[in-house]
Amino acid sequence: MHTYEARPYKAPEPGGFAEVSATPPLHEVEAERVGSTDTASHHTTTDSYVAAPETPAAVPNAGGGIFPDQLPADQAMPDPSAPPAAGWESSARLNQNYTFDTFVIGQSNRFAHAAAFAVSESPANAYNPLFIYGDSGLGKTHLLHAIGHYAKHLYPSLRVRYVNSEEFTNDFINSIRDDEGSSFKQIYRNVDMLLIDDIQFLAGKEHTQEEFFHTFNALHNHQKQVVITSDLPPKQLTGFAERMRSRFEWGLITDVQPPELETRIAILRKKAQSESLNVPDDVMEYIASHITANIRELEGALIRVTAFASLNKQQVDLSLAEVVLKDLITDAGGAEITAAQVLATTAAYFDVSIDDLRSKSRTRTLTNARQIAMYLLRELTDMSLPRIGQELGGRDHTTVMHAVRKVSAQMPERHVTFNQVTELTNKIKQDQRQNR
Predict the structure, then answer these.
(1) pLDDT score of 140 more than 60
(2) Which of 105, 199, 351, 404 could form a disulfide with 54 if both were Cys (CB 3.0 to 4.6 A apart)?
(3) Regarding the domain with residue range 26-255, which homologous superfamily does it belong to in the CATH classification?
(4) CA contacts within 13 A on the Cβ side of 15
(5) What pLDDT, on a 0 to 100 scale, did the predictor assign at position 392?
(6) How far is the CA of 21 from the CAs of 207, 239, 333, 396, in angstroms?
(7) Domain 261-434 adopts which CATH fold?
(8) Measured over all CA atoms, what is the biggest interatomic distance in the chain, rounded to whole angstroms?
(9) Is 141 annotated as a binding residue?
(10) More confident residue, 56 or 236
(11) How many C-beta neighbours within 10 Å does residue 203 have?
(12) 140 appears as a binding residue in the annotation
């Protein structure tokens, strides 16, 4: 077996690719921050769903790459016995909950899972880049993190970095503002594996795209793995230069589809198991049969039923689920729930204005209203965490993540929070039906 140590970044030979000729003015790139403009037309997520591990089937070398036994000695796989790369554990930014062991496999995502597994086992040799696309909430982000975790498990010296497009944009802008362009390049071009989420949000961001273009070239030229997720396949992405889209097609393109009934039931079972919830099979089948596309709403319905039962000291059964979810489960064909609708309904409910929700005020009432609005936007729409933050006054996606987790944790414990979320959800769903 060929082995080698993960190599530090080495500048490409002259003629390898054209570097940016000059640093763009700060005022031009500042406009590319998420929250300053809204150039992307599609919403995606930074969350996903989970399930039992499964050994992937053999995947053909559709990406045109070469496998380890075909590599010259100086380009073979990292040495699994090598020590971890110093300082890269924290900078990897990997979510510990998103691994292959917690990913639910079904017909809707089997090939994407197999391709992701192959990339983990053979970075930069199986498919490079690997491009995964699909609607929000279907597991793309989960696969990105799982790739990073398993690759680092197999090759401890591997330098891995996960980043969403918002973070990449802000890191780039901050490097220009702080006159640390060389530091930015050192971070992003000195990795062995770059995992970039929601690439579609770079649409129209000319300077950030230019930097990513050269980062991609540097990594690809040095046999480093790149994995990208998007809500659309490369050919359908708008606001990107053709040379950028063409590079997305160099390796393997695969998609994830909405899960079929059996997979939805498996998702609910895994969620119940991970949360130590006692839920009868007929309740999970009822939820899975009526909520079919949005995985967050699928899991949210389960939490809503179990939270209601916990607060009211009742057993979870089918009749209770039907009562609790009667306003959540609507007829097909309802109008899409929008951010404007959620914010307007939430503001009216708490007797505040939408401007108040977007303000910097941290009064108890406004903080509570703002966090519940974030939770509802996450549960009832396809908006990503960065996009929700943008809607709420340009807040960071980590603030949104904290709010969603806080409200979720309070639902089974506080009657007030449960009632507020339930009443607002019912009102929003009622308006949705009326707007069909």
Answers:
(1) yes
(2) 105
(3) P-loop containing nucleotide triphosphate hydrolases (3.40.50.300)
(4) 0
(5) 94
(6) 12, 22, 51, 31
(7) Chromosomal Replication Initiator Protein Dnaa; Chain: A; (1.10.1750)
(8) 71
(9) yes
(10) 236
(11) 18
(12) yes
